[in-house]
Amino acid sequence: TETLNDISKVVAHNGISMLLLDQKSKTYEGGVTLPIADLLMLIISLYGAAQERIETKRKVLDGKAAIFLANPYAVVDGGTPFGYRAVPNKASTRPRYVLEEDPVEVAYIKQVYDMVYNGMTLRQISNYFEDRNIYFRKSRVYVTLLSDITSNILYKGIRRRNRTSMIDEATVYEVHIKPIIEPEIWDAVQE
């Protein structure tokens, strides 16, 4: 009943008119108290739309997970990790894009790991790149960026994708790809 009262107040007191796309013949006029039958129908319609949205999102996430598990290099979301570039998939139409190593960025990643492995601090490495006017994807090489690079398990050859929805528990999918950094060196840098 509290929800019914809230909706009734919004419609009646705030003068907001509503039109549901699946019931174009029915308009809920602003400034008018809604009859209880209309309120109930509105609640049921809104609840059904919310459930449909949740189910659609679940299907999209399941589809992306299937693509990711079938092709570890699949680009399933907008972001492309540093060290890679998204290129059209020549082998298939699904996924449309796959990750490919970017030689320049891979060289920087290897250089950063080598510097840390040989005892340099992230601040020293940041200063090194700053002194030489070297940028990573048009961005200054800050300590936080270096920290993200040196702790990213992707460079060890493990690619993860988190799947979360509004109802389900978070699920982490993990696939193996060619490592940019040898696992022993990656592990040593973590210490």
Descriptive overview:
The chain is built from six helices and six strands; from the N terminus they run αββαββαααββα. It has 191 residues and is of the alpha+beta class. The chain has a two-stranded antiparallel ribbon. It has a two-stranded antiparallel sheet with strand order 3-4. Helix 1 (2-13) packs across helix 2 and helix 3 crosses helix 6.
Mean pLDDT: 86
Instruction: Trace the largest sheet across and list its strands.
Output: 1-2
**Number of helices, where a helix is a run of at least 4 consecutive DSSP H or I residues:** 6
Helix content: 40-55%
Shape field: elongated
Overall radius of gyration: 26 Å
Please provide the ordered H/E string of secondary-structure elements. Answer: HEEHEEHHHEEH
Query: Could you give the distance between the termini?
Result: 57 Å
Q: How would you sum up the major sheet? A: 2 strands, antiparallel
Flag low-confidence runs: none
**Content of β-strand:** 5-15%
How many β-strand runs? 6
Structural class: alpha+beta
Summarize the structure.
This protein has 191 residues and is α+β, with helices and mostly antiparallel strands. The protein has 6 helices and 6 strands, in the order H-E-E-H-E-E-H-H-H-E-E-H. The longest helix is centred in the first third of the chain and has 35 residues.
List the helices and strands and how they pair.
Layout: H1 2-13, E1 18-19, E2 27-28, H2 36-70, E3 84-88, E4 97-101, H3 103-117, H4 122-131, H5 143-151, E5 158-163, E6 171-176, H6 183-190
Antiparallel strand pairs: 1-2, 3-4, 5-6
